[in-house]
Design a protein that fits this description.
Blueprint lengths: L5 E7 L10 E5 L5 H10 L13 E4 L2 E3 L10 E5 L13 E6 L5 H7 L7 E8 L3 E2 L2 E10 L1 H19 L3 E7 L1 E4 L3 E9 L2 H18 L2 E7 L2 E4 L26
Helix pairs in contact: 3-4
């Protein structure tokens, strides 16, 4: 007996927006994430299949594996490798996305408490070049619901992992000019080693897991920045995403 058909919504980000416009897809009622990817892969030109390598997939704003069984009405996000919350008690955790300039000095000052022996910060700034190309401006976009959840989870994990008192993570979206802050991470702790270690871990992990993408516009064109690979436990590495392009007749 054939399974009833279902329809899922597709969200795409970064360079995948150019390949798969946001849409909905009808699938068999027992379809999995891999089944959906196989359908989408079949519609790609051979030269563009490699863009599926190393992607992650979300279902209803949660990371999902290839064997995840889909349901009618699910929202599936296709996430290329990546390049808000509200304050908790005593401002221990502040995480959010914003389209406004980030006042770095104010946030660095606001996190301090008498019990802190160190405040460590990472201030990511838009520079005027990438390798030998002159940068004019950057555009950041995100799967906002999922990114906000991931930022909060990162802050909570850092507090537990490094025993730091407070974490602030703020990320800009939209158009950024040269010299503006794209991401600010501030960590307060009784000891400098914990604050520094937590700050480095946060920015490194954010760049690999939070669904935020960067498009760079240069004097001679624009390009989506290459993302850092997703961790193995997130990235889909199977016959659907990693299969070579199909052979074509000349």
């Amino acid at each position: 007996m054939l399974s009833a058909a279902m329809r899922v919504e597709i969200l795409t980000f970064g360079i995948l927006k150019d390949l798969f416009p946001a849409s909905s897809v009808e699938l068999a009622g027992d379809a999995t994430v891999d089944d959906l990817l196989l359908r989408l892969r079949g519609g790609l030109e051979p030269g563009k299949v490699n863009f599926l390598r190393g992607i992650a997939v979300s279902v209803n704003a949660q990371f999902a594996r290839g064997d995840h069984r889909l349901k009618d009405g699910d929202v599936v996000g296709l996430l290329p490798p990546v390049s808000g919350g509200s304050p908790a008690a005593e401002d221990a955790v502040v995480t959010f996305l914003t389209r406004e300039p980030i006042p770095t000095a104010r946030w660095m000052e606001s996190i301090r408490r008498p019990c802190d022996g160190a405040v460590a910060a990472f201030d990511g700034i838009v520079r005027d070049h990438t390798r030998t190309r002159r940068t004019l401006f950057l555009d950041y976009e995100a799967y906002e619901e999922m990114a906000a959840t991931q930022l909060r989870a990162l802050a909570d994990a850092a507090r537990e992992r490094f025993a730091v008192r407070a974490v602030t993570i703020i990320h800009r979206l939209g158009r950024l000019e040269i010299g503006q802050t794209s991401v600010l991470i501030v960590v307060a702790s009784a000891h400098r080693a914990a604050a520094l270690d937590a700050c480095r871990w946060l920015i490194d992990t954010l760049k690999r897991t939070v669904p935020i993408w960067k498009k760079e516009t240069f004097e001679d064109g624009a390009v989506w920045a290459d993302g850092e690979p997703f961790p193995d436990e997130i990235a889909l590495t199977n016959e659907v995403t990693n299969a070579p392009p199909p052979e074509t007749c000349s």
